[in-house]
Q: What sequence folds into this?
């Protein structure tokens, strides 16, 4: 398969275990290119010249390193740089207000870390691509007007 | 005279300088004199021109002659168009002007002709005409009366009427709304011009053309209006694009709407599907409960009665009841197993076991039956197979029991061969083939394809003759394939069948724990045991009472969780047997209350009819120590009770004890990682290394935070640890503890409890650390 058709994903999480697990799972699907970042800062450094199709971002990035940028700040920065990149937030806490807050900051979706997280991510990515295709078609029609 | 000569000479020069041919012709039409221009245009020398017939130089000599006569008749002629021909064929359009010249007496001597060269003018005219003709927009000139005086080709095309037929007709007749066209026309006269007035032209075959009507009046030199020039711009294409765009817009809006609908539909479909799976699970759970509860009483009491003094006949009948009951339970278990596989809930143990003795023990079960049917049993066991393997012996039993059971069932004479062969051996894994061959009725070839489907037997008559539900092979297939193995069948009708399956097992250095003999001999040293049975159904209460008293235990009964809790406040019990589904307060709620509110660690064994994994998980989650599924096997019940009595030395209830989950001897279970890395050893290795690297620092971070009472950082640290629990297959029980820490630290409530929880977590993690270190060393080997 050529790299053109592959879906490029940025994974950002300070939990090395979960990060590697997700990477492994994505790499086993043939159609993904995965880049992993342990911090929001690293992600932002790569973002201007490297545009991913989807970013999967941990909510807690500043848990241990207090000076690190947290998930929400990273989300805002990503959206400020390029609002068209869909961002899916990940967190191990199942709290509605956190989820709603993420959505208010223009996250595409919010997922709780669990065994089924990867499966849900796959579903969401499918939905994102579906939406993007629809939006592309729509803008094509709009241009004709 | 000199002056005259000079004048004449001057006139001559003027004549010669003219670019227009000047010629004098005699009355007979012969050229008498000419200037250089004529010589140039005809390409003939003066000498040769002189005296020749003038008219021969025109393309149309007849017409030239007529013009010539006209000159004589009228005395002159103005701007008569004619064409001169050059010797080499080149034509020159000229306007012929001539006048008669006479002698002093007034007699006509001849004609002086000026032929003005108008080629360039004509070219220009033709050019603009062709421009007009080339225009795709109809161009029409109309007289003041509204009659068409001229038009271009586009007008012809759009109306479908020839020029001849158009000319002189009423212009307005070609519009769909003649009245409106007339108004526009009048407007042109009123204002002098009109721009972009929308009208529609009609083709004679009915086709309509939308046009923008632009017109302006044209006048003669004196300013009198002669008519109107009209350009009707064809806007059909524009209109079509506009319409298409509107359509596209509507379509796009519609598409968005459809997409939104589709999304919400998909969401609700997912919800429905999830609910359906849940309700299916619930249904199976309920059904198994409903069937097992009465079966529990039937089989239990049959066993009890069988132990009493009976006549031979009575014993025979009771045995029949028991065998039928057992068969029914096997059927229910089969259905539940399939449901579990369907729901993806089937889990496989990885415990060390001895394959050869496992096979022997299984075949032993069939010995009587085989002997009865006068069959021969042959066992071929490959001695190269390692003695101890890592796998799920219970499921292996289930598979082989099913296949050998079938072989025995469908064979009336001959032999049954069980062959166990080593197929492949690497440093980590052995692959073993199990083949069961019989000389029975065989399977027709056309049935071989779906023999592994649910509720299938080779012929519909099979179950009538031989019994069975047709679920056995479906379960066998699922069990084999879920463990990454494969199963094949070969058969010849009337000659017998061979079922062969391959399974891989990990090698291990571990030794097999010899299971304590579940003898029913009463353990000495365990006396004065007090057991609380929490059970709502009277029949089962009675059965438990009979069994426990037979074991020599003291027992009390509570009808539901609430009564049990009341009883526990006044009396101390050594062990609690807890039914799950009860009125008032069920087993889960009661256990949770006992563990949390009463802070008691008394061993609790669940008595469950629901053997779906969902409930087993739930039992562990609320803090139960173990479970026994109904119908209760008296030997199993006894051995489990003894196990727990021995463990905590029984009596002490307030004593803090590490919750022991017998179903999982180890803390970790690498099934998740193995499954998700597709058993890639280096990836597994890497994951474990990551865990070993990350966890100790998190634990020390948490401990540090405890000292500094930095609750937010503590919360963050434990938060980061949570996902690793499920990845490493650590029990949800501990994950819940971690979540509890997270909650306490997050809300800054119950912070005094955090310390104990953290040290508990540390203990677990240390244990996990050791296990994973061993695992990684094993992999490295």
A:
């Amino acid at each position: 398969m050529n790299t053109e058709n592959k879906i490029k994903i940025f994974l950002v999480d300070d939990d090395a275990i979960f990060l590697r697990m997700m990477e492994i799972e994505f790499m086993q699907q043939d159609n993904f290119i995965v880049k992993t970042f342990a911090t929001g800062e690293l992600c932002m450094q790569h973002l201007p010249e490297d545009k991913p199709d989807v970013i999967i971002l941990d909510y807690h990035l500043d848990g241990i390193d207090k000076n690190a940028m947290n998930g929400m700040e990273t989300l805002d920065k990503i959206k400020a740089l390029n609002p068209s990149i869909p961002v899916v937030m990940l967190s191990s806490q199942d709290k509605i207000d956190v989820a709603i807050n993420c959505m208010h900051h223009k996250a595409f979706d919010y997922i709780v870390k669990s065994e089924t997280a990867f499966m849900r991510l796959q579903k969401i990515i499918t939905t994102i691509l579906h939406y993007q295709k629809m939006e592309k078609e729509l803008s094509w029609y709009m241009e004709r007007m | 005279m000199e002056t005259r000569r000079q004048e004449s000479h001057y006139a001559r020069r003027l004549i010669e300088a003219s670019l227009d041919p000047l010629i004098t012709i005699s009355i007979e039409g012969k050229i008498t004199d000419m200037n250089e221009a004529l010589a140039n245009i005809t390409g003939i020398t003066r000498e040769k021109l002189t005296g020749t017939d003038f008219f021969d130089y025109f393309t149309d000599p007849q017409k030239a002659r007529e013009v010539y006569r006209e000159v004589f008749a009228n005395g002159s002629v103005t701007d008569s168009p004619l064409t001169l021909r050059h010797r080499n064929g080149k034509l020159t359009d000229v306007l012929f002007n001539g006048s008669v010249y006479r002698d002093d007496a007034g007699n006509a001597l001849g004609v002086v002709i000026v032929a003005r060269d108008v080629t360039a003018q004509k070219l220009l005219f033709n050019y603009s005409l062709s421009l007009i003709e080339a225009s795709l927009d109809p161009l029409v000139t109309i007289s003041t009366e509204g009659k068409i005086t001229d038009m271009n080709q586009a007008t012809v095309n759009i109306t479908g009427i020839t020029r001849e037929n158009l000319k002189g007709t009423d212009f307005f007749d070609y519009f769909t709304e003649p009245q409106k066209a007339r108004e526009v026309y009048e407007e042109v006269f009123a204002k002098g011009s009109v721009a972009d007035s929308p009208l529609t032209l009609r083709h004679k075959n009915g086709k309509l053309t939308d046009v923008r009507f632009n017109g302006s009046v044209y006048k003669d030199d004196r300013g009198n209006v002669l008519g109107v020039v009209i350009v009707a711009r064809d806007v059909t294409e524009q209109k079509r694009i506009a319409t298409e765009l509107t359509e596209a817009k509507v379509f796009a809006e519609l598409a968005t709407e459809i997409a939104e609908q589709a999304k919400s539909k998909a969401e609700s479909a997912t919800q429905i599907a999830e609910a359906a799976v849940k309700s299916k699970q619930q249904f199976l759970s309920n059904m198994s409960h409903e069937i097992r509860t009465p079966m529990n009483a039937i089989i239990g009491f049959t066993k009890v009665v069988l132990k009493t003094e009976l006549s031979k006949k009575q014993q025979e009948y009771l045995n029949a009841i028991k065998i039928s009951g057992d068969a029914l339970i096997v059927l229910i278990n089969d259905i539940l197993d399939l449901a579990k596989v369907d729901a993806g809930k089937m889990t496989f143990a990885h415990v060390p076991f001895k394959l050869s003795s496992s096979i022997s023990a299984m075949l032993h079960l069939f010995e009587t039956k085989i002997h009865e049917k006068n069959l021969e049993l042959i066992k071929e066991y490959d001695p190269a197979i390692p003695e101890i393997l890592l796998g799920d012996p219970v499921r292996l039993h289930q598979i082989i029991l099913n296949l050998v059971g079938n072989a025995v069932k469908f064979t009336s004479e001959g032999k049954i061969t069980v062959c166990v062969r080593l197929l492949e051996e690497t440093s980590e894994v052995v692959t073993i083939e199990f083949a069961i061959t019989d000389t029975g009725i065989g399977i027709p070839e056309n049935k071989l394809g779906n023999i592994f489907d649910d509720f299938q037997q080779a012929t519909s008559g099979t179950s009538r003759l031989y019994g069975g539900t047709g679920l056995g092979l479906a379960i066998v297939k699922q069990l084999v394939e879920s463990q990454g193995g494969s199963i094949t069948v070969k058969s010849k009708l009337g000659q017998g069948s061979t079922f062969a399956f391959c399974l891989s097992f990990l090698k291990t250095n571990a030794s097999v724990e010899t299971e304590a003999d579940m003898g029913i001999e009463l353990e000495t040293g365990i006396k004065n045991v007090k057991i609380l049975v929490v059970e709502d159904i009277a029949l089962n209460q009675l059965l438990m009472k009979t069994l426990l008293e037979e074991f020599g235990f003291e027992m009390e009964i509570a009808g539901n969780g609430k009564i049990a809790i009341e009883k526990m406040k006044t009396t101390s019990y050594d062990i609690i047997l807890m039914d799950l589904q009860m009125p008032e307060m069920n087993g889960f709620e009661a256990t949770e209350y006992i563990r949390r509110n009463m802070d008691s660690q008394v061993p609790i064994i669940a008595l469950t009819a629901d053997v779906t994994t969902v409930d087993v998980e739930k039992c562990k989650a609320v803090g139960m120590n173990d479970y026994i599924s109904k119908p209760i096997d008296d030997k199993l019940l006894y051995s489990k009770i003894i196990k727990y009595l021995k463990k905590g030395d029984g009596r002490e209830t307030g004593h803090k004890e590490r919750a022991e989950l017998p179903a999982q001897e180890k803390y970790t279970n690498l099934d998740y990682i193995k499954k998700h890395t597709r058993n890639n050893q280096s990836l597994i290795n890497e994951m474990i290394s990551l865990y070993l690297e990350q966890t100790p620092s998190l634990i020390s971070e948490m401990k540090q935070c405890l000292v500094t009472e930095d609750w937010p950082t503590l919360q963050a640290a434990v938060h980061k640890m949570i996902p690793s629990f499920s990845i490493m297959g650590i029990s949800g029980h501990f994950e819940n503890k971690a979540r509890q820490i997270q909650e306490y630290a997050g809300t800054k409530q119950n912070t005094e409890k955090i310390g104990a929880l953290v040290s508990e977590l540390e203990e677990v993690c240390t244990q996990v650390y050791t296990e994973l270190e061993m695992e990684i060393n094993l992999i490295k080997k």
Residues 601 and 657 of chain B are 7 Å apart (CA to CA). Residues 530-647 of chain B form a domain with the Rossmann fold fold (CATH 3.40.50.2300). The longest strand of chain B covers residues 91-102.
